[in-house]
Write a structure and sequence with these properties.
Helices cover 22% and strands 28% of the residues. Strands 15, 16, 18, 19, 21, 23, 25, 26, 27 and 28 form a 10-stranded mixed sheet that branches. Strands 1, 4, 5, 6, 8, 9, 10, 11 and 12 form a 9-stranded mixed sheet that branches. The termini are far apart.
Length: 429
């Protein structure tokens, strides 16, 4: 595969309502991940590790923080033609409105793709957690002379109805597509996944082929589908792909690795906390394919009389007498004495407070950024720059699954303190 012939397009997603309040002030791809990364770093790093260096990111909601992160992180040498470029929704005479869906976002951006050579378009999602070398995916597309190739993962029966499912013929060509089928419609989508390389035991456990929402298109075919044949279609999965089956050679490519769609708070929280496991399903410790993010040049973290078990402590933190279990402590975090964190995703802070700012907070009885003394926090997400006062207990004592509280919300049973949120001294949740 000649990398210079490939253009990658990463879909930044919509308003990210299922990840609210994490998306209240930022685009979904800019949501912090694993203490130091952002969601967008996953597909961009996969591209770089696959020698794909021409990358567009399509977005329209709360894109300022995403723009800052991209501008400060991905700067290729001036002697290459590589770039990572944000394409925000534009108001033009031809397109006077916002992106209406994934397909419409690419349709409105086609004229930007025409400025660059390359007949192969790789369409990726900005909110999935996985590692993939896209070179094998693209080689499969080229070797099968496909017009469109869809990356699929083998799914179990209990989860299959949440995805678009495919059926293939012996050559790997997709012959049927069904969006989130249930009941009898689901049973009709069963396939022998051993034909794609799974063992008989694996094929029996995972008898469905689920679309990952990741595609390779020949550029001319993409243009015909979006502009000439289906100019009103808004979504790839629901509209473009089913129609493409009837007109073009659509092939499937099996990805048999860890893949998580982290579109909900529950999935997002679980994917982060699983990183603290001894053998995490998504492992950032890989010298062959590193995960890239913004270099911040922070000092090493300082731990004073702490107990830490199965946790990730990122750089620039000051932890004083804390007990931390199964948690992630993000950059520049401050945690005071007597604090107990259990299953907490703490995203950290964007800046250090000066001594004058810390004293000013004390003088007005205001919690400073971080977690104050003697707090107990369990199964929670603490967003950036949050201020947790002294003696706070965040335990979801009511066992609520969904709740709007004063200074916090509960989603999927997980308490979330939003960015810049304040929880006063002595609060019990």
């Amino acid at each position: 595969m000649a990398a210079e012939k490939v253009l990658a397009v990463i879909l930044g997603g919509g308003a990210g309502q299922r990840l609210f309040p994490l998306t209240k002030a930022r685009a979904k791809p800019a949501v912090p991940l694993g203490g130091k990364y952002r969601l967008i770093d996953i597909p961009v790093s996969n591209c770089i590790n696959s020698d794909i260096h021409r990358i567009f990111i399509l977005t329209q909601y709360n894109s300022a923080s995403l723009n800052r992160h991209i501008a400060r992180t991905y700067r290729f040498s001036r002697f290459t033609n590589g770039f990572v470029e944000i394409l925000a929704a534009e108001i033009t005479p031809e397109h006077p409105g916002w992106f209406q869906g994934t397909a419409d976002a690419v349709r409105q951006s086609l004229h930007h793709l025409d400025d660059y050579k390359g007949e192969t378009i790789l369409v990726l999602s900005g909110d999935h957690l996985y590692r993939m070398d896209y070179r094998g995916f693209i080689e499969r597309h080229l070797e099968s002379h496909a017009d469109v190739t869809i990356s699929v993962t083998a799914a179990r029966a209990e989860e299959a109805s949440e995805f678009g499912l495919l059926k293939i013929d012996p050559s790997g060509r997709v012959v049927e597509f069904s969006e989130k089928p249930k009941g009898e419609a689901l049973e009709r989508m069963r396939v022998d996944t051993s034909k794609l390389g799974l063992s008989p035991e694996q094929a029996e456990r995972r008898p469905f082929l689920a679309s990952m929402g990741i595609y390779v298109f020949h550029k001319d075919v993409l243009r015909r589908l979006l502009v000439e044949e289906m100019p009103e279609a808004a979504d790839f999965g629901k509209e473009i792909i089913p129609e493409a089956l009837t007109r073009y050679n659509v092939q499937a490519h099996l990805f048999d690795g860890y893949w998580e769609d982290i579109g909900t708070i529950g999935a997002f929280y679980r994917a982060n906390i699983e990183m603290t496991l001894p053998l995490p399903p998504f492992n950032v410790f890989d010298s062959e394919a590193p995960m890239y993010t913004r270099p911040r040049y922070l000092p090493g973290s300082k731990l004073l009389d702490c107990q830490v078990r199965s946790s990730i402590i990122t750089e620039g933190c000051i932890l004083n007498g804390a007990t931390i279990t199964d948690s992630i402590v993000g950059i520049r975090s401050r945690v005071e004495h007597g604090v107990r964190l259990d299953g907490v995703l703490m995203m950290g802070a964007d800046f250090y407070q000066t001594l004058e700012e810390l004293q000013a907070d004390v003088d007005r009885g205001f919690p400073r950024i971080g977690i104050g003394p003697n707090c107990i926090i369990r199964r929670a997400i603490i967003d950036k720059n949050a201020r947790i006062g002294e003696g706070v207990q965040i335990l979801n004592l009511a066992g609520a699954d969904e709740l709007e509280g004063q200074g916090y919300v509960i989603r999927d049973g997980i308490v979330i303190v939003p960015k810049n949120g304040i929880i006063p001294d002595g609060t019990v949740i």
